[in-house]
Amino acid sequence: MRRRLFALAFIAAALALGCSKRSAPAPTASGTPAARLRLAMIPKGTTHEFWKSVHAGAVKASRELDVDLVWKGPLKEDDLKSQIDLVQSFTAQKVSGIALAPLNDKALVASVNAAAATGVPVVILDSALSGGNIVSFVATDNRAAGGLAGERAAELLPNGGKVVVLRYQEGSASTHEREQGFLERVKAHPGLVVVSDNQYGGPTTESAFTASESLLLAQNAAGGGVNLVFAPNESTTFGMLLALEKSKLAGKVHLVGFDISDKLLKGVQTGEIDALVLQNPFKMGELTVHALVDQLRGKTVPKRTDTGAQILDRKNLEQPEIQALVKPDLARWLGQ
Asked: Of 29, 264, 270, 325, which has the fewest beta carbons less than 10 angstroms from its beta carbon?
């Protein structure tokens, strides 16, 4: 009996040992178990549809790569102090890595360098940083994307016309590049005259609407002083659309915008918005997490990744590849 009990106990112990070996974390090169990766992603803001798509793509990648992801950013895209505080807080928490979409191309450099100095790698997404010790930059080629909008403006005004740019806000590298790309292409067409390119819409739809009203009035849009407007992001596009609707100019003054939301999609469908430049925010979030995890796991990471852009209008709206950008499956990844 004792021998039988001993044998059973030996078998049970061996089985338990085998199970524990299978469930243990994979060892590192030094032979110690690898800690689970915990990544922090800090967007410019959390209200625009663009950032929800970035979040969804990041969640998808984090699940596939089996890492933890913390998503936290400012509510509004003008809260620079909050974003700096978040970078510093996550650095102090010793997260495995940080993904950051900087609100200002210069103001975040010191915090990013401080994170890197403590061994926390940083990947920048969406909007470039002016310097700083970063692993990689994952974003739309914004100058080229702005150029797409400029070429569409030339197609909409084949006989020339008066063009206005409603800029986003100072210090935002991504939108500055779009604005510059647009202006470069427009100025290559002698018949197009830029009558205003120094007004800023600010970080919200409300501020963009107010700026748009003033701009349209100052340029006598109702009297033919404006033929086309370019807006470089979601909030400026919607703010301008509202101002054009209020002044009864929607569908009369051409509007070329950037990014997508349900309200902007409706504007395209009704013809009040001629075209939108679409980025791929889902892919941007996904590839950013991949870059950060690859760096942490010792793989080679490209210094720059272009996530692409294309024009949306009424003609191509129903194409499957466009629909994937227009209506990403947020519910699957964010539970919304």
From this structure: 29
CA distance 143 to 135: 22
Please report which residue ranges of the chain form alpha helices under DSSP H.
2-23, 49-65, 80-92, 109-117, 142-156, 173-187, 205-218, 234-246, 262-270, 281-296, 320-326, 330-334
Pinpoint the alpha helices (H) of 118-233.
Answer: 142-156, 173-187, 205-218
Q: Report the predicted TM-score, pTM, of the whole model to 2 decimal places.
A: 0.84
Which tokens hold the place of 208? 């963009």
Residue 28 pLDDT more than 90? no
Q: For residues 174 and 127, is the Cβ–Cβ distance under 8 A?
A: yes
69-120 pLDDT per residue, tens: 999 999 889 899 999 999 999 999 999 999 999 999 999 999 999 999 999 9
> Is residue 29 assigned to a domain?
no
Q: Which domain holds residue 263?
A: 142-278
CB-based contact 240:229 (threshold 8 Å): yes
What's the total number of domains in the chain?
A: 2
